[in-house]
Amino acid sequence: MKKLINDPRAVVEESVQGFGLAYPNLVTVSTDPTFITRKDAPVGGKVGLVSGGGSGHEPLHAGFVGLGMLDAAVPGAVFTSPTPDQILPATLAANSGAGVVHIVKNYTGDVLNFETAAELAEAEGVSVRTVLVNDDVAVEDSLYTAGRRGVGGTVLVEKIAGAAAERGDDLDAVAAVGERVNANVRTMGVALSACTVPHAGTPSFDLAEDEIEIGIGIHGEPGRHRIPMENADGITDRLLEPVLADLGITSGDKVLLFVNGMGGTPLSELYIVYRRAAQVLADRGATVDRSLVGNYITALEMQGCSISVLRLDDELTGLWDAPVHTAALRWGV
Amino acid sequence: MKKLINDPRAVVEESVQGFGLAYPNLVTVSTDPTFITRKDAPVGGKVGLVSGGGSGHEPLHAGFVGLGMLDAAVPGAVFTSPTPDQILPATLAANSGAGVVHIVKNYTGDVLNFETAAELAEAEGVSVRTVLVNDDVAVEDSLYTAGRRGVGGTVLVEKIAGAAAERGDDLDAVAAVGERVNANVRTMGVALSACTVPHAGTPSFDLAEDEIEIGIGIHGEPGRHRIPMENADGITDRLLEPVLADLGITSGDKVLLFVNGMGGTPLSELYIVYRRAAQVLADRGATVDRSLVGNYITALEMQGCSISVLRLDDELTGLWDAPVHTAALRWGV
Question: Which of A1, B46, B134, B294 has the fewest C-beta atoms lying within 10 Å of its C-beta?
Answer without folding.
Answer: A1
